[in-house]
Model the fold of this input.
Amino acid sequence: MTGLDDFKRVLSEFSNLSLWAAGASVAFPFIASFLSVIPPWPIGLNVITAVIQLVTLIVAYQTFSRNARRITRNVKWLAILGLFLLLLYMGIFTLFTVYIPPAHRSIVIGYECLPDAKKVFEAKCPFLTIDDLSAAAFDEFVLWTKPSIMAIRVSLVALWFSVFICLASLIGQFLIYQMGRTVRPASQ
Amino acid sequence: MRSKLTIFFRLCFCISFCLSDVALAQTNTLKGTAKSNPQAALEYFKKTWLKFPKDFDPEDPSAPKFYSVDTCMYTDENRQDPEATYMDGLRIIARNDVRLSKDLADAGYPPAAWREPLNRLTRKQVEILSQRYAGGQSLDIAAIKSLMRPHEDLLLRTLNTYRKQSAASLPEFETSTSCGGDWIGFVKVITAPRGGSVSLIREYFFQLCVALGKAPYSSECDMWSAAGTSAQFPQGTYRYLARWLDGSDECSRVELVNAGASVDRAQVNTIRQTGISCSK
Done:
């Protein structure tokens, strides 16, 4: 058995576990569970995230340490960091996206209105509503500055990737460690 | 052997250097031509595009064909160099001309019906682009599109007149009122009873005119667009100004909705005569 065979075994375990998490309906590890809050931009982010998870798993496998205490500490900190990043992501997602029911998708808005939009919406800026977006024919670039939309888009994607890097790293380390352990049968 | 190889590599280096020099000289000549005689540069770009007719074939030949008159210049918006944007703009105008010529021919319109009107449209866009570039004005896609809208409508009217008079079975060409954007869907507007003429403005631009102290229903507020049968608008909230055949004017706010499954196919929305006159 080569090291690659061993890694394939880890990958298989990882996919099994992720399919379980996603309701055994999709092939993208864990991502399906979060599809309702996936960043609206760019399109095809679920596939990119799956690749990033795979790379994270490879890194976790290559840098694996057999030190049980270190693994426990890593898993604990990754869980806390992952949760914090997820909450931060959800906060930004809630503040800076507007769900458009007819299109069944969200639009990322900016944090700074254009001067003309400030004249129209005044104090309401930058947190405009779906009606305000409809007034601009759902063209966010007419209402918010391009750099502010870009900053929010990139922040959402960066946080999204960070959450999944934490998740893949945590589960990867856990699996590799547990698969290498010999569990003695419980004494009668 | 070694000396032969050295000579060979030196030769390669010299040839590539000369070729890059020739390419650079050609590029510089082209830029010079584009500034002094933009129409000549356009002809050069058109010839280049015509060498690759396959580029204009549809990605999915089985998909229903969507015929449009589109003067949007989709260039790299992040470019800071006006000269590069200008050169890209000329290339795209040439591409749009070649694509539209091919679409019109494929659709079955005879060249006599569209060649000259299309030439006028293309010449006008080159004129607008080159004048704005020379004057140091913005080459923004939306600004140029809004200046081109009346000329697009003119070409559409010419095509529609030919279609109605000579060959009603020919496919109708359409246009969109704006370029790009994260649109939800597109809509078209018809009137009930037929024959009314409608102008539309996005609610946001209407409110902007109010905020700027411009009379929103006057020509002072310059974001109104004529909603002919071929014009498409992105879905959203609009103000309309309708003039009916009996001479009455009506105006109101309206939600134009595309409830269909396809974002690309415009849904027809009807503006009905209400009998309530417009109080501007």
User: Anything to note?
Assistant: Chain B has a mean pLDDT of 80.
